[in-house]
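Q: Got a minute? One more chain.
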Amino acid sequence: MARVLAMVWVGLVAAGCGEQKLASADLVTASRAISVDVGRALALPPPGSFAVTGVTQRSYENAVAQVISLTTRGRTPGENAIYVAFFTAADLPDSAGVEGNLLKEPGIDDFALGREMDERLPGVAMSPSAVFVQNKYGPFGYAFGRGIGGEACLYAWQRIANSDSVFRPRSGLVSVRLRVCDPAGTEASLLRLAYDYVFNASLRRPGWNPIGDAPPPASEIGKAGTPIYPGPQPSAVTEREMPRVARPRPARVPRVERSQIPTPASISDKPLEGYPTVPPPPAP
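A: Always. Here it is, folded:
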């Protein structure tokens, strides 16, 4: 009996120890966002600009979204980052609302963009630009302002989608937001980030191609009679056809008149009065 009781006690202790051992599936986090390696970022800034310090990713049933953190300098509240979302080619949610684990497509109207800038650039007066700008992926918009201490701040947005039709399935969608402030930056230097950022991934889904195919090469390539030079092509205008440029005349130097030097009076040969006349020397 004692032996049976001992075996039961050992079994209970083993069962208690087994319950204390946790599995990876037992941990439930409050957010579905995970940190991934910087090499798996969906988009990257241009070389020589801001470094990528971290990538936070969240997966949805219809999209994959990332917050790509960049080096942040200055005193303006907020974090320099690229916000990217890849939407699938099918089942894009309507703008009216989203149910379940679906990501709503970010709007590009004035109200939606103003709310985003108030959240990511608090206290900074941003002025949207009315100039049409376009990078290699298509047109985009941006706003510029001054943060704390006068540092330059830029917020850019872009919606990339290929043309869809009734006879053609949806090709997906890419949403991009860029928030950056830099005390040593200018509007032109920060705008370069919106021009030169690149995508680093794609979705392996049928029909997913929001950017479209690459443009064909120039028609002049490989044809005779169309030379291609490494630099700017020389002008075909001959020297005779080129307009002559008038040479600037030298500045006129004021003429300085010479002062009239009086001519010395001629010496007379007559002997002076009151003095003895000296005879000339005798001839040899």
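A: The chain has three helices and eleven strands.
Q: Perfect, thanks.
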